[in-house]
């Protein structure tokens, strides 16, 4: 049984400086050599800070942009495997119904000139599914699924609050009955108490429709709540991946450890009195450090980290990209502080 | 017990619009002491920023402070002055605003002028609030930049804001706020929108600056995690009113007001939130023009007492040494 | 599962529902309605257009009709009061009298305050065609000529023979011999009119000016009679011309009101058509540029930039001067419109391109693509409706620019020329100081231009504010 989604050595590079004729000279390496997989019925949390490339990776998976390199194996039924990276937009169109997206900003993800009915039935219309009446009924059903009243059909987006709009976005994503939904920070823009409602909704729908989520977020607490497995990204690289318990309770990569240490918890008992704070800034993606991209800020950096790019190594069903776990380097001298 | 450096008593802020009157703040009262951080927490629209704007004299028509007093004590020995008495453009108010009471805002990316060098920002505030000469101002400016953790301060002094990242811009904002040697720093959602690691740096910076100069800090936020991390005392705001005020430990361990309890239960990762389904607060926040009779939270409250909660406004009552609550359950 | 609740219904349920179900157009209309000034200005604009487009009905005279004897008359002011012979008080004017000084033989105009000539509405005047099919003679207002002699002695119609002048036989037929009426009892003056009624259609007639009267011989002399001999007697009537030049006349005696209205039709229409053309050009090129980007975008934008940097007035002058002199008025008119449009599309092109570039990145456009929509569908169904309101506002603001361009060019003599009448052409006649000093009413078209441009600017700004409420 093939995994629903398998991403191998994905690279998304944007040209930055070009010669006069348009040939790129330097690149912004938004996503660099990223590998992860997602099984059916699973939620994979993709965490990272700004510039980590997590959103770009999400867009690449859905082929909203064309990756420079890599294989994106998508298998909605577990049998046939499609390499999304190698397909043209025309070939992709029939596959699009199996993968959908939920966006971050509830205010720009709905067309302000269309009614709720038009918005949610758009995917159905575009794929020629059902008659007008059948589409209408399906939209009603979807609204109920998303926790909204069916009578909202004729209203325009400006009538709704942020949380309600996000529900409409979810209803729209469900219209085509996809197997994979990429969620790009779906609750970050919402009020705290509304976040809870939307997360509950997403978990319920996952159960009901056997969905799989690629859940992109920067809030670790949210990811801890909803994800089964977690992947951590930094400056375009995937630095660690494992089950929720593995990553949160026993983080391997120094960045994961710093990230967990820096994230405030809503409980004063866990005040960061003695823990170290990560110094420095996220690097400029067009001018990344050599070797391991994290080495300038890494509290456990060794000399070799400045020159050698670590491999993604696996153990106990999890992976990590750090020279500390590659035996040929891990005994090396530490970098002078 | 020491006197508070800032004390709000029953402050009301109203906006008179064409569509009706918006009661942004309805009788808020809280105190801030030196060398402590008071967090004002609430969801969007609850009025937490508005009460601080009132303190800073930033409420402009059609808004005004209609009732209450805001007492500010400049030094330990001077008497408190009521900031409400002064017109927002008066000399007194302008001396205090940006000088003795400083404020930093939410959006670091847009808070600095893109056409002025950051040194100019510092220079301007120093000119307004100190007597230093030009060279001295430059020195002090660089000093402040180093103090907030900007390396190479002299070189950076003459750079433009777009040459800095979000976290750095927020640090520059803090430096500008410190120019007038404030007694009270109001930080309005200073870390919203920043990365987690940068957020930790900024909060750490504010705490260490506070320790160095013993200034009071009001931290306005909607993020309970930030509150747990940095606050000494917490005031919870809902619909323009303070519904509960307590020590941070007490608030998280045993919240009293039903809204606080419900909030705790719905925030991911907090003590009261379960790992499965999160508890939601039923109903939704009423719009700005609606007025709710009696207790503002009663339509959404699980402990609603019919006949009382929908008729009578609860009193803001002291229930412990450092704890106040506004709820009929504790009347 | 509970929804986080619809906004709790307030007492005014219907109002809330109306807001929720209101499309952006409805909301825009409502926002616009709140700007009282803009609404009134829009009303003024619409009224101007209605008046000028229907100038055939609203104008009592043909703008090109030359009234040699009423040259450069000041306005006959409209007054309100009782008129002899008519029951209720109504509008009237005091007519002009021409008095010939017997000594110097110079003619002077006097306004005769004694006589009041009623101004009536929906009067019969010159014939004109309505909607290319219906013929009618009704005009909005007018002044009736005064009948002097319409019935013969017996009470029936008057007949006369029109014969040729014995001094120039076969050349001019300007002697009228009245058969069955008495000329002596009626005070016929020179400059009064003889109407020869068409035998088949009593409403139709030909008018001739009377130069002299011989009551004893029952003859009249005409200034210029019919050019062909008429066989047999014809039905005639004698009328006195009454003028109703509410805003005076021009240098050839043309009615100023009619000229302004007909001129308005040309000027206002040029505005609309010019903008329509640049609109089409601008949107198409801007759309292609914005959506596809890349080399196409670069090429189109460079062309637009070159056109924008070229100074407009010299180019217009050059193009206007290049119009062949032998072209008909209509051809010149269309050429002018084309010229104005060619320079005007660049602004809109940029706006459309900018909007498309921005909107392309919006999440809802992405969502449509991810659902499988084609790019064409995304552009037309999702993006364009989202800035249509801005386009409309821009259009309303572009029209006055076109109008002023045409007016300016024609004023300088480089655009339209007589016999086409436009406001600019009318203003061309006022370029001399004597004109402004002696016939100031001829400068009125300038006031019309100002009114039209101001009204459209206010209305356009109101529309723009309504379309984008965050732009104050």
Q: How would you describe the overall organization of this protein?
A:
The complex is a heterotrimer of chains A (337), B (331) and C (472). Chain A has 337 residues and is of the alpha/beta class. Chain A has helices at residues 54-61, 89-92, 116-126, 132-145, 162-174, 192-209, 220-226, 244-249, 254-262, 327-330; strands spanning 5-15, 27-38, 43-47, 69-74, 82-83, 99-102, 180-184, 212-217, 229-234, 237-243, 313-315, 318-320. Chain B has 331 residues and is α/β, with parallel strands linked by helices. Chain B is built from eleven helices and twelve strands. Chain B has a single domain, classed as 3-Layer(aba) Sandwich (Rossmann fold). With 472 residues, chain C is an alpha+beta fold. Chain C folds into three domains: 43-50 and 249-467, MetI-like (MetI-like fold); 76-144, no CATH class; 147-240, Elongation Factor Tu (Ef-tu), domain 3 (Beta Barrel). Chain C is built from 13 helices and 13 strands. Chain C has helices at residues 13-20, 24-34, 36-53, 55-58, 256-292, 294-309, 312-321, 329-360, 363-370, 375-411, 423-428, 433-438, 444-467; strands spanning 79-81, 90-93, 96-100, 107-111, 117-130, 134-143, 146-149, 158-163, 175-178, 193-197, 205-214, 219-222, 234-240. Chain C has a six-stranded antiparallel barrel with strand order 8-9-12-11-10-13. Chain C is elongated and about 100 Å long. The model of chain C is unreliable at 1-11 (pLDDT under 50). Chain A binds chain B through residues 49-50, 161, 163, 191-193, 195-197, 199-200, 203, 218-222, 224-225, 258-259, 261-268, 270-272, 277-279, 281-282, and chain B through 43-44, 165-168, 195-201, 203-204, 222-230, 248-249, 252, 262-264, 266-271, 273, 275, 277-281, 284.
């Amino acid at each position: 049984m093939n995994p629903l989604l398998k991403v191998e050595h994905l690279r998304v590079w944007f040209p930055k400086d070009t010669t006069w004729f348009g040939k790129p000279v330097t690149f912004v390496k938004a996503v660099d050599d990223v590998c992860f997989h997602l099984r059916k019925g699973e939620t994979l949390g993709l965490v990272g800070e700004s510039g980590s490339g997590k959103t770009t990776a999400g867009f690449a998976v859905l082929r909203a942009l064309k990756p420079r390199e890599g294989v994106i194996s998508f298998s909605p039924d577990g049998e046939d495997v499609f390499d999304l990276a190698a397909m043209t937009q025309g070939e992709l169109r029939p596959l699009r119904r199996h993968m959908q997206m939920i966006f971050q900003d509830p205010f720009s993800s709905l067309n302000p000139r269309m009614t709720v009915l038009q918005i949610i039935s758009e995917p159905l219309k575009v794929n020629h599914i059902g008659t007008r009446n059948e589409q209408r009924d399906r939209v009603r059903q979807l609204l109920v699924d998303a926790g909204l009243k069916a009578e909202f059909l004729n209203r325009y987006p400006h009538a709704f609050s942020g949380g309600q709009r996000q529900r409409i976005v979810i209803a729209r994503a469900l219209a085509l009955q996809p197997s994979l939904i990429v969620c790009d920070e779906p609750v970050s823009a919402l009020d705290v108490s509304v976040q809870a409602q939307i997360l509950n909704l997403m978990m319920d729908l996952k159960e009901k429709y056997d969905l799989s989520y690629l859940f992109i977020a920067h809030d670790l607490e949210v990811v801890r709540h909803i994800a089964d497995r977690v992947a951590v990204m930094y400056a375009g690289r995937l630095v660690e991946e494992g089950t929720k318990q593995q990553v949160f309770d026993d983080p391997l990569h120094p960045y994961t450890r710093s990230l967990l240490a820096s994230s405030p918890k809503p409980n004063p008992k866990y005040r960061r009195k003695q823990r170290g704070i990560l110094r420095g800034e996220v690097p400029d993606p067009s001018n990344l450090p050599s070797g391991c991209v994290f080495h300038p800020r890494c509290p456990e950096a060794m000399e070799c980290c400045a020159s050698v790019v670590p491999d993604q190594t696996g153990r106990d069903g999890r992976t990590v990209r750090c020279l500390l776990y590659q035996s040929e380097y891990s005994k090396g001298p530490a970098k002078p502080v | 017990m020491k006197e508070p450096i800032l004390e709000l008593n029953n402050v009301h802020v109203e906006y008179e619009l064409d569509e009706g009157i918006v009661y942004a703040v309805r009788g808020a009262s809280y105190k801030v002491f030196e060398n402590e951080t008071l967090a004002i927490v609430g969801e969007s629209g609850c009025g937490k920023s508005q009460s601080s704007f009132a303190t800073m004299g930033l409420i402009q028509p059609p808004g005004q402070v209609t009732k209450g007093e805001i007492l500010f004590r400049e030094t330990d020995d001077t008497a408190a002055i009521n900031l409400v008495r002064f017109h927002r453009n008066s000399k007194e108010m302008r001396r205090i605003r940006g000088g003795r009471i400083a404020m930093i805002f939410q959006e670091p990316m847009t808070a600095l002028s893109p056409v002025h060098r950051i040194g100019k920002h510092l220079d301007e505030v120093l000119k307004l609030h100190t007597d230093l000469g030009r060279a001295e101002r430059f020195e002090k400016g660089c000093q402040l930049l180093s103090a907030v953790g900007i390396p190479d301060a002299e070189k950076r002094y003459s750079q433009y804001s777009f040459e800095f990242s979000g976290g750095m811009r927020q640090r520059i904002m803090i430096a500008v706020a410190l120019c007038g040697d404030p007694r009270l720093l109001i930080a309005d959602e200073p870390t919203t929108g920043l990365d987690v690691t940068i957020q930790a740096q900024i909060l750490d910076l504010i705490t260490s600056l506070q320790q160095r100069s013993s200034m009071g800090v009001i931290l306005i936020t909607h993020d309970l995690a930030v509150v747990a991390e940095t606050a000494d005392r917490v005031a919870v705001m809902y619909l323009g009113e303070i519904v509960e005020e307590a020590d941070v430990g007490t608030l998280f361990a045993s919240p009293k007001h039903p809204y606080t309890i419900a909030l705790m239960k719905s925030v991911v990762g907090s003590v009261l939130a379960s790992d499965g389904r999160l508890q939601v607060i039923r109903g939704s926040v009423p719009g700005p023009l609606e007025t709710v009779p009696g207790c503002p939270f009663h339509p959404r409250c699980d402990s609603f007492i019919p006949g009382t909660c929908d008729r009578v406004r609860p009193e803001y009552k002291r229930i412990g040494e450092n704890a106040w609550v506004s709820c009929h359950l504790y009347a | 599962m509970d929804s986080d609740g619809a906004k709790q219904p307030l007492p005014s349920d219907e109002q809330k529902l109306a807001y929720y179900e209101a499309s952006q157009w409805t909301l825009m209309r409502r926002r616009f309605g709140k700007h009282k000034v803009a609404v009134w200005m829009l009303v003024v604009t619409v009224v101007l257009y209605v008046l000028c487009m229907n100038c055939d009905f609203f104008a009592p005279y043909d703008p090109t009709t030359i009234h040699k004897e009423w040259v450069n008359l000041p306005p006959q002011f409209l007054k309100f009061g009782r008129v002899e012979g008519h029951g209720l008080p109504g509008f009237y004017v005091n007519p002009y009298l021409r008095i010939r000084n017997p000594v110097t033989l110079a003619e002077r105009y006097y306004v005769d305050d004694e006589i009041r000539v009623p101004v009536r509405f929906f009067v019969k005047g010159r014939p004109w065609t309505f909607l290319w099919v219906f013929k009618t003679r009704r005009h909005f207002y007018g002044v009736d000529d005064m009948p002097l002699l319409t019935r013969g002695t017996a009470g029936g119609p008057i007949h006369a023979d029109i014969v040729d002048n014995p001094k120039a036989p076969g050349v001019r037929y300007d002697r009228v011999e009245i058969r069955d009426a008495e000329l002596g009892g009626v005070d016929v003056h020179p400059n009064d009119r003889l109407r020869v009624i068409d035998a088949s259609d009593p409403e139709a007639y030909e008018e001739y000016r009377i130069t002299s009267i011989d009551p004893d011989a029952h003859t009249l002399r005409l200034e210029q009679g019919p050019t062909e001999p008429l066989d047999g007697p014809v039905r005639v009537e004698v009328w006195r011309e009454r003028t109703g030049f509410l805003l005076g006349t021009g240098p050839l005696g043309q009615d100023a009101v009619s000229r302004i209205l007909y001129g308005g039709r040309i000027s206002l229409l040029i505005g609309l058509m010019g903008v329509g053309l640049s609109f089409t050009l601008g949107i198409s090129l801007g759309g292609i540029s914005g959506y596809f980007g890349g080399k196409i975008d670069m090429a189109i934008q460079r062309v637009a930039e070159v056109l924008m940097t070229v100074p407009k007035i010299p180019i217009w002058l050059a193009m206007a001067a290049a119009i062949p002199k032998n072209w008909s008025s209509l051809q010149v008119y269309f050429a002018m419109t084309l010229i104005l449009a060619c320079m005007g599309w660049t602004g809109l092109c940029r706006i459309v391109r900018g909007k498309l570039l921005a909107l392309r990145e919006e999440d809802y456009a992405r969502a449509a693509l991810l659902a499988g929509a084609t790019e064409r569908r995304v552009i037309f169904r999702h993006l364009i409706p989202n800035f249509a309101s801005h386009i409309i506002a821009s259009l309303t603001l572009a029209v006055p620019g076109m109008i002023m361009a045409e007016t300016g060019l024609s004023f300088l003599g480089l655009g339209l020329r007589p016999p086409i009448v436009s406001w600019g052409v009318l203003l061309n006649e006022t370029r001399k100081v004597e004109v402004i000093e002696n016939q100031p009413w001829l400068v009125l078209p300038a006031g019309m231009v100002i009114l039209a441009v101001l009204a459209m600017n206010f209305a356009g700004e109101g529309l723009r504010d309504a379309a984008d409420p965050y732009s104050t």
